[in-house]
């Protein structure tokens, strides 16, 4: 009876959150180390299916950096990043399409289906989901999203499916662009009017010092420019935080950067009053920032 009573207690504790999020859209950005560790990969898939079973409407927006890097190295194509964004030549773009759409997206759809969910794979090219312009010649085929057509995603959600979306887009003229995975997830969450945007990453959250992992638990978007100036937000964290800021400014209610290396971290974030990682918003003052003198 003790074990059963504990299970009942847990269910009762989650009831307020189930009421809050019932029928609401939750966009999950999945990438990084959680994509290469089999145990973590399965935990993420189980979390997404569980969210659906609990009455939420999850959308899985994935990246695929590790897989792209592996294939580029295998083909002896140089890997280069500029301010956290991948330089994407024509050859790199072909690899990006092959890995993101042909491998990662298909695998995730298959895993969700095998775990008891029903998933449908989409890319930003599907139904002109992401219309892009080229960011700069310096970055090659890297796109900035200028329009999001949510109809394909909403059609899947309304039919009871879990959409799995790859971050590539089109300019409508036959050109395909690589989109930063975090940026794509943020734009999608905003366009869908999502209740939550959850970014699974490779560290505990946004840290003052990456060496000691002291996490900023709440980040008010007003402090982002100063944190960039002092170098706290740098490298690959720049597009991640930028996408959070944009999502908050465009109306996403809850935005979180959490540690995707911890099994089931997504469920802990969804159903706990005190979440993990870094919550990004503008409702209160930042908590945990160490300003440099």
Structure, described:
This protein has helices at 2-21, 38-53, 65-74, 90-114, 151-158, 181-192, 224-229, 237-249, 265-270; strands spanning 25-30, 57-62, 81-82, 85-86, 119-123, 130-134, 143-148, 162-166, 168-170, 176-178, 196-201, 218-220, 254-259, 278-281. The chain has one domain: Carbamate kinase (3-Layer(aba) Sandwich). A hairpin with a 5-residue loop joins β9 (168-170) and β10 (176-178). The chain has an 8-stranded mixed sheet with strand order 5-8-2-1-11-13-14-12, sandwiched between helices. α3 (65-74) packs across α4 (90-114). 40% of the residues lie in helices and 21% in strands. The protein has 293 residues and is an alpha/beta fold. It is globular.
Describe the secondary structure blueprint for this structure:
Layout: H1 2-21, E1 25-30, H2 38-53, E2 57-62, H3 65-74, E3 81-82, E4 85-86, H4 90-114, E5 119-123, E6 130-134, E7 143-148, H5 151-158, E8 162-166, E9 168-170, E10 176-178, H6 181-192, E11 196-201, E12 218-220, H7 224-229, H8 237-249, E13 254-259, H9 265-270, E14 278-281
Parallel strand pairs: 1-2, 1-11, 2-8, 5-8, 11-13, 12-14
Antiparallel strand pairs: 3-4, 6-7, 9-10, 13-14
Helix pairs in contact: 3-4, 6-8
């Amino acid at each position: 009876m003790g074990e059963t009573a504990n299970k009942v207690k847990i269910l009762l504790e989650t009831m307020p959150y189930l009421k809050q999020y019932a029928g609401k859209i939750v966009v999950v950005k999945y990438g990084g180390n959680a994509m290469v560790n089999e145990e973590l990969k399965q935990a993420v898939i189980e979390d997404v299916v569980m969210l659906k079973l609990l009455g939420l409407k999850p959308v899985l927006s994935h990246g695929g950096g590790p897989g792209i890097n592996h294939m580029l190295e295998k083909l002896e194509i140089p890997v280069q990043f500029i301010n956290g964004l991948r330089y994407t030549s024509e050859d790199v773009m072909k690899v990006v399409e092959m890995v993101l759409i042909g491998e990662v997206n298909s695998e995730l759809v298959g895993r969700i289906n095998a775990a008891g969910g029903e998933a449908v794979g989409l890319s930003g090219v599907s139904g002109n989901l992401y219309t892009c312009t080229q960011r700069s010649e310096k970055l090659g085929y890297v796109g900035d999203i200028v329009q999001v057509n949510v109809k394909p995603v909403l059609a899947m959600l309304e039919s009871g499916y879990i959409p799995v979306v790859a971050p590539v887009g089109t300019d409508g003229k036959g050109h395909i662009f690589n989109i930063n995975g975090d940026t794509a997830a943020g734009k999608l969450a905003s366009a869908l009017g999502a209740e939550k945007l959850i970014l699974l990453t490779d560290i505990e959250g946004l840290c003052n010092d990456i060496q000691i992992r002291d996490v900023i638990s709440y980040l008010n978007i007003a402090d982002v420019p100063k944190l960039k100036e002092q170098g706290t937000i740098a490298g690959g964290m720049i597009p991640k935080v930028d996408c959070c800021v944009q999502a908050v400014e465009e109306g996403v209610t809850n935005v979180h950067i959490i540690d995707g290396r911890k099994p089931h971290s997504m469920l802990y974030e969804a159903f706990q009053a005190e979440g993990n990682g870094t919550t990004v918003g503008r409702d209160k003052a930042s908590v945990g920032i160490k300003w440099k003198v």
